[in-house]
Amino acid sequence: MPGPNLPSPSRSPASQPGKDWVDVSRDSATGIETIRAHFTGHAYDPHFHDAYLVGVTEQGLQEFSCRRALHRSTPGRVILIEPGEIHDGQARDEAGFTYLMLYLDPAWVTQSCTRVADGTFSLHQAGFRATLNDEPRLAAAIRRAFWRLHQPESRLARDGALDALAAALNSHFGASEVVRVGETATRAARRARELLREHMEQDLGLDALARLCGADRFQLSRAFRAAYGLPPHAYLVQLRLAAARRRLAMGEAPASVAAAVGFADQSHLGRWFRRAFGLTPAAYRAICTNVPDGKFLDR
Fold first, then answer.
1. Which of 173, 176, 156, 30 is nearest to 114 (CA)?
2. What is the pLDDT of residues 148-163, one digit of tens each?
3. What is the Cα 204 distance to its own chain's centre?
4. What average pLDDT is seen over the chain?
5. Contact 51/105 with Cβ under 8 angstroms?
6. What is the pTM (predicted TM-score) of this model?
7. Three-class SS of residue 21?
8. Does residue 229 contact residue 86 with C-beta atoms inside 8 Å?
9. What is the CA radius of gyration of the chain?
10. Who contacts 99 (Cβ-Cβ below 8 Å, separation ≥6)?
């Protein structure tokens, strides 16, 4: 349960039986985003975030792939996903599922979580020991922090809830799975990822990428997918989406963001963004900046 004076999990202004909905908010002081959503079928395509994701399933069976395994989260279970971890989401029955999630800015994690801040792990090395967790104390801390930010109260109330969340998270940090996988990747796969990050906005073909990495295109494709869970093109799309999300949160217009990160146009960005995050770029920008943009009609 959420705890005293916190909203019931069933409350949502967007909630309608049989309808999918996404409710997002962003705390300007910390950069932490909160999302509460309900899905009755396919929720998200495989994607990753630059943030640490900590959340709780409220209702139904939440099924998703992460760390090359299929996970099933039921009400009360905690979901922990580190930056760069590829995951998706879907419901497996007509009732669908409802969940709440905090997107923790890595800078906040560095400042607030002692196992990172005291040097036990560097920010680059810090990950989560497990994807699913059944600890009630952690679930309660996540819920409380979520509602203190999602329906803002006083700064003191929000800070107190975030401090309690940081304390609850500390014992769950371990060596980063993303870093471990990257370290075991072939030299060609690592080089390809570096090149994609450095030249994200360019239309680099697979043959050219393979030549730069010292491998043929088929070897590179196999090695890259084995290391990072996606083929090079799909991984590039995720890099562009992550960059677009950062730019939109700072108030840039969707059309200029699309051009800057390498999408063909605003519609191209809109299609991929909605598939990965469940809302349009304009809606996300408005949430983060309070700047409306064409009533969110871009696709």
1. 173
2. 999 877 899 999 999 9
3. 26
4. 89
5. yes
6. 0.86
7. strand
8. yes
9. 19
10. 36, 37, 55, 56, 57, 58, 62, 73, 79
80-129, pLDDT tens digit by residue? Answer: 999 999 999 999 888 999 999 999 999 999 999 999 989 899 888 899 99
Q: In this structure, what token pair is assigned to residue 281? A: 């770029």
The C-alpha atoms of residue 181 and residue 195 are separated, in whole angstroms, by 18
Q: Does an H or E element contain 127, and which?
A: strand 126-128
d(CA 212, CA 186) in angstroms, rounded, equals 14
Q: Token digits for 19?
A: 């309808």
Contact 2, 144 (CB under 8 A): yes
Instruction: Answer whether 116's CB lies under 8 Å from 173's CB.
Output: yes
Q: Which residue has the tokens 């080089």?
A: 191
Q: 225 CB contacts (<8 Å, ≥6 apart)?
A: 231
**C-alpha distance across the termini of the chain, in Å:** 37
In one letter, which amino acid is 153? E
The residue whose two tokens read 């029955």 is 93
What distance in Å separates the CA atoms of residue 61 and residue 55, rounded to the nearest whole number? 14
**Could you give the CA distance from residue 232 to residue 225 in angstroms, rounded to a whole number?**
7
Q: In sequence order, what are the residues at sequence separation of 6 or more whose Cβ sits closer than 8 angstroms to the Cβ of residue 5? A: none
